[in-house]
Design brief:
It is a single chain. This protein is an alpha+beta fold. The chain folds into 2 domains: about 280 residues, no CATH class; about 60 residues, no CATH class. A hairpin with a 2-residue loop joins strand 8 and strand 9. The protein is elongated, with a radius of gyration of 24 Å. It starts with 20 loop residues before the first strand and ends in a 7-residue tail after the last strand.
């Protein structure tokens, strides 16, 4: 059965309150307006004037102190010169908070706020029917990033990323020791989705504005230093697969469930594994033990048997022992860390309590307000 948004509605109460936040959106919304940016014209010889067909994208700061949004006028009427759609790409937390260390998961709230800010900044008088469309969530979504920060022992981000790199055979990029991108696309960038694992504090420090931090930035850097970040990017075909190509289809979606369903596809938790004990080896059949032994010696399971047999044996060993023999990285006798304890819902870092009531966290507002968890152990508001 094809998964739809109806399959990922809130069913498991343990997922509610987990802080998976929205980090990027690419939307197309109905909005009749005079085109922004430089117009592109088509020389139509059947008429005596140049016909506007498109407009170049422009960057606008939608909120003072916030990040820029990329905005483009779309579907320009050649007769009237008016655009009927607006395209926006942005990171909502950066636009609203000037950082994206944390945020919230209410898509409707973010989209409605961003569209209103864009209209105000560009001087667009929004038609009532367009405003109603925004309120209903009749807005096309072609890309969304869902992000969570996971607690980890100090200094372990780079070793974790190296282990994931060692365990992943192909379709990966590692621009930095603290940054890896996993992409399921076979020949080019996947149209379904991708995963980026990185050290958020190091990423923040790579930008000039974080090198001489003020009081709030110091707090944010300290918070970033607590974890490792996993960012799921869902592209157009992935959204189509789940029937989530419009904002109004996200109202009943359990975003943490969707996030971890995507995360599980990348098999992160088996990048670091331990050796089986003699007692555990007894539970395996002879063929399973032989496969495991050869795998330990460096012979990949795909080189030992047919694809069907490899799948059956891998599944059997995993079920009996919890060890996945399909990966490239071999087990350790005493591994420093168990990734099953890292990339798990219960280990997601919440929004720190000190951020509430400050400019560092803009809570959901408007339509479909979500429940954002509070870190009761944080320091007081400065």
């Amino acid at each position: 059965m094809k998964p739809t948004h109806a399959n990922i509605q809130i069913q498991d109460a343990t997922n509610q309150g987990i802080n998976v936040h929205i980090d990027w959106i690419h939307i197309y919304a109905p909005c009749e307006h005079v085109p922004t940016g430089t117009l592109v014209y088509f020389d139509d010889k059947s008429v005596d004037h140049l016909v506007p067909t498109a407009a170049a994208a422009n960057q606008k700061v939608l909120k003072d102190g916030g990040d820029e949004a990329h905005i483009r006028s779309k579907e320009i009427n050649g007769r009237t010169g008016m655009a009927s759609m607006i395209e926006i790409q942005c990171c909502p937390p950066k636009v609203l908070q000037n950082h994206n260390l944390f945020g919230h998961g209410d898509l409707q709230s973010y989209v409605y706020q961003i569209l209103n800010l864009a209209a105000a900044r560009l001087g667009i008088k929004v038609r009532p029917e367009d405003l109603m469309s925004w309120q209903r969530g009749d807005v096309s979504l072609t890309e969304i990033h869902l992000t969570a920060n996971f607690g980890r022992p100090a200094g372990m981000s780079v070793p974790i990323i190296q282990a994931i790199d060692d365990n992943t055979e192909s379709r990966k990029r590692k621009p930095l020791p603290s940054w890896i991108i996993l992409d399921k696309g076979k020949k080019r960038r996947s149209t379904f989705g991708a995963l980026t694992i990185y050290d958020k504090m190091l990423e923040m420090l790579s930008h000039r504005e974080w090198r001489k931090p003020g009081p709030y930035q110091t707090k944010l850097l300290a918070e970033a230093n607590r974890g490792i970040r996993a960012e799921i990017k869902i592209f157009s075909q992935g959204l189509k697969h789940y029937d989530l190509g419009y904002v109004n289809r996200w109202g009943d979606v359990d975003i943490p469930t969707l996030y971890f369903e995507y995360l599980d596809k990348y098999n992160l938790c088996h990048a670091v594994q331990r050796l089986l004990t003699d007692d555990e080896l007894v539970c395996l059949t002879r063929s399973e033990r032989n496969t495991y032994t050869l795998w330990l010696k460096g012979v990949d399971i795909k080189d030992q048997c047919s694809r069907t047999t490899a799948w059956k044996i891998t599944k059997a060993i995993l079920k009996k022992t919890g060890i996945d023999v399909s990966g490239k990285r071999r087990p350790e006798k005493l591994p420093d860390i168990d990734l099953r304890d890292i990339f798990t819902p219960k280990n997601v870092l919440p929004v720190p309590s000190w951020a509430f009531g400050t400019r560092c966290f803009v809570a959901p507002r408007g339509y479909g307000i979500s429940n954002v968890p509070v870190d009761q152990g944080g320091s007081s508001t400065p």
